[in-house]
Write a structure and sequence with these properties.
The protein is α+β, with helices and mostly antiparallel strands. It is 66% helix and 6% strand. It folds into three domains: 143 residues, Globin-like (Orthogonal Bundle), CATH 1.10.490; 114 residues, Alpha-Beta Plaits; 84 residues, PucR C-terminal helix-turn-helix domain (Arc Repressor Mutant, subunit A, Orthogonal Bundle), CATH 1.10.10. α2 crosses α4, α5 crosses α8 and α15 packs across α18.
Length: 396
């Protein structure tokens, strides 16, 4: 089509922009139930976008139909606020574009006649494709912005948990990110994986991987990379070992520590504090499993200066022995001092070896530690030492 004819046709189309916009909106009102449910403000924005789209087509046709997608995006979707992308989905936007172009296509033959109408209809097909790509780019940018905002919000929530500053506002923000677990929360802590290309530690999709693995076993998750550490808050935990194992593979080399189970997100700082202390002390137990519970690292934590771990060992091990029976405390002390030999402990205590065996079973019932296991014997030795140092005056 000659440029003069094209300009003439575009001028006739320009005069029909308003009635075409009205016809397109009327069809949306009739055929799209969700459109009727929008409030007046959102429908007015859609009206502006529709009118801008038809005007953009006319201008695009006038200039020869070769405008870039970026120009079409700014001309068609520029008048609409970004928030409209959260009200109208991409699928709904495509439906509106299709209806608008259908209305223009149905009217061009009546407005322009057969020959010119056929040319314009061909141009409509090309323009519809360009608008579809432009709409996809708009929604992709909106999703990227929302993803970046969600990531920042998630990092702030995790930071509040680590700092012990979680409150109802944090719970509300977590719910906005999809957190649904009202109880049974644990914090998993380890080192962030290194990027294979640069060797630097960072997120690199690890958060998506962690979230996917947690969801696979029915857990809620909040994740953040803080420096060289990866912090994962898990909700809806029934089994600490299973929960830790579900996400351990996504951490970098080094220990992965699972904090104790707490009531809810507001008290998750208790779990995170134990996990942080455990990660700091984990290098003291070279054969520790991965993941390892923070409570299994009480000896190393106490030696590294963790007052909470010292208190736990005294109250959970030393004090129950003192309250149960003096002979149990003496037997535990003799057993660990004799290098874990029942016969040597029996000689120190001047009793039969079977008596030592019986008392060891009683010690297991009272403290949960089986002293014939080297790890439990080491824990008992630390607990006895701390009990003697930190126990009240006059204690055995």
């Amino acid at each position: 089509m000659a440029s003069g004819t094209r300009a003439t046709v575009a001028g006739r189309l320009q005069k029909a922009v308003a009635p075409l916009t009205t016809a397109a909106l009327a069809r949306m009102e009739r055929d799209l139930p969700w459109f009727r449910e929008l409030d007046a403000r959102d429908r007015s924005w859609i009206g502006l976008v529709t009118q801008a789209g038809i005007s953009a087509f006319v201008e695009w046709f006038r200039e020869g139909g070769g405008g870039p997608v970026t120009a079409i995006r700014s001309e068609v979707f520029g008048p609409a606020p970004t928030a409209l992308a959260r009200v109208v989905t991409l699928q709904q936007t495509v439906a509106m574009v299709r209806m608008t172009m259908d209305e223009v296509e149905r009217s061009v033959e009546e407005l322009l006649g057969g020959d010119d109408g056929a040319t314009v209809r061909e141009a409509i097909l090309l323009f519809s494709r360009e608008v579809a790509f432009a709409a996809a780019e708009v929604y992709a940018r909106a999703a990227e912005m929302r993803g970046a905002w969600d990531a920042r919000l998630e990092a702030l929530i995790v930071d509040s948990v680590l700092r012990g500053e979680a409150d109802e506002a944090v719970r509300s923000r977590a719910a906005a990110l999809g957190w649904e677990s009202p109880s049974r929360v644990a914090v998993v802590l380890g080192y962030a994986p290194a990027d294979a290309a640069t060797g630097e530690r960072g997120p690199h999709n690890v958060i998506d991987d962690v979230r996917r693995s947690a969801r696979h076993v029915g857990l809620d998750s909040l994740c953040a990379v803080q420096g060289d550490r990866l912090v994962v808050v898990l909700g809806g935990v029934d089994d600490l070992d299973k929960a830790g194992a579900a996400v351990a593979e996504h951490f970098g080399p080094g220990p992965v520590v699972v904090g104790p189970l707490v009531a809810d997100l507001l008290s998750a700082n208790v779990s995170s504090r134990a996990a942080v202390a455990g990660l700091r002390a984990a290098k003291g137990w070279t054969s520790a499993p991965r993941p390892v519970a923070a409570d299994d690292l009480l000896p190393e934590r106490s030696l590294s200066g963790d007052g909470h771990a010292r208190h736990r060992l005294v109250t959970d091990v030393y004090t129950p022995l003192c309250q149960a029976d003096q002979v149990l405390l003496d037997t535990a002390s003799a057993f660990v001092e004799s290098g874990g030999s029942i016969e040597a402990a029996a000689r120190l205590l001047f009793v039969h070896a079977n008596t030592v065996r019986y008392r060891l079973r009683r010690i297991t019932e009272v403290t949960g530690l089986m002293l014939t296991d080297p790890r439990d014997a080491y824990t008992m030795r630390i607990a006895l030492t701390l009990g003697r140092l930190l126990g009240p005056e006059g204690s055995p």
